[in-house]
Amino acid sequence: MIKGFSSLWTCLGFAALIAVSPAHAIEKISKIGVIAPLAGGSAADGNEMVDGARLAVDEINAAGGVAGYKLQVVVGDTQNMSVESVTSAVQRLTNDPDLNAVITGYADYSNFEIELMAEQDMPYLLYASTDSTRAIIAPRPDKFPTVWSLNASYDAYKTAMLPVLHSLEKNGRLKLQNRKVALISTDNPYSKSIMNGLKKSFEEEGWTVTSADLLPTGEISDWRTFLVKVRQDNPAIVINTDPRADNAAKFLTQFLEQPTNSLVFIQYAPHIPEFLKLTGEKATGVIYNLIGGTLPGNPRTAEINTRFQARFGYEPGSSGPAVYEEVMLYADALKKVGDPKKRLAIGKAIGEINKLTAQGRLSFDPKTHLAVQSDDGFPIQFYQVWDGKRVLFSPQQHADGEFRMPPWMKQ
Prior knowledge:
Mean pLDDT: 92
Number of helices: 15
Structural class: alpha/beta
Distance between the termini: 103 Å
Number of strands: 14
Strand content: 15-25%
Order of helices and strands: HHEHEHEHEHEHHEHEHEHEHEHHHEEEE
Radius of gyration: 24 Å
């Protein structure tokens, strides 16, 4: 009897030890939701976003986690970036009680989901379409204490091109045959606002805008109607502000079927690795610009790109490193606050961050919740594709190469 009684108490004691020590047996998990388009023309960008989040989370967890928590990535596919798809993805993620933050490169072009995040005090870090972000937040920044943009104002997209072109002409690197420009855009807030801003800038400097066409958003397989007019007008510059890599590749391929003596500028898309895969050597000479992109001379950029290459087998564009940095920003804030459920405190901590990132020195404008844009902060970067590589030629302090006349243009 005594022996049995002793054994019973031994078993009960072991059971009690398990019951009172769950924190030691089960890791505390804090989930981070990634919303991204994983189908259609933006799928390459969307998958890169997810890779960026997973890379950062794996590194954080390998180092022991943060504030006693291991992080876990959960993904919401925004598919074709329609309102319905984005709303559904956000709702699926935020219904999980263990979800404590949401990040993205972009979910759609209007960023309407900012309102959904604010309703739940959900820490939300996003990267693209800053015109839309500012339009939502600036009238009432106090209403969005947990929403912050890892990118700066897009105003420079509309005004910075002409000074760069003037500089290239002045130093003899660029020769333009006339003062005519042809523009085309797709009908979404990102592309359309940039095209309209460029149109205004060129007109104010006395240029003739030969076209300012607007096409429906989505996959575009044939740009030839616009290009017929380009060949008739023979402008010095041709600008396409549609950001989809597949559309941009078709546009360039069709332009090169009968190229004019024109500089070709394509908004953002050439920075997506898929564009270079689709175009190969044909892309040599194309220029584009980028706000919030990784800086080639930045040691942190080299570190992130090397890790991407080792883990996923490709060098990322801009969305992957941006989402990687978003995870790191959230981790910094969580470390400071200590509890992922204290969402307002985490939002405040994110807004106070001032640190060097792969995109430049990051701080936030409290009036817009955008990253502060400057050559010493987040600069606007001008690139040219040459032999399958992206060459940063402006601003000078960050440049890793020089502009050259495209091979289809007369020297």
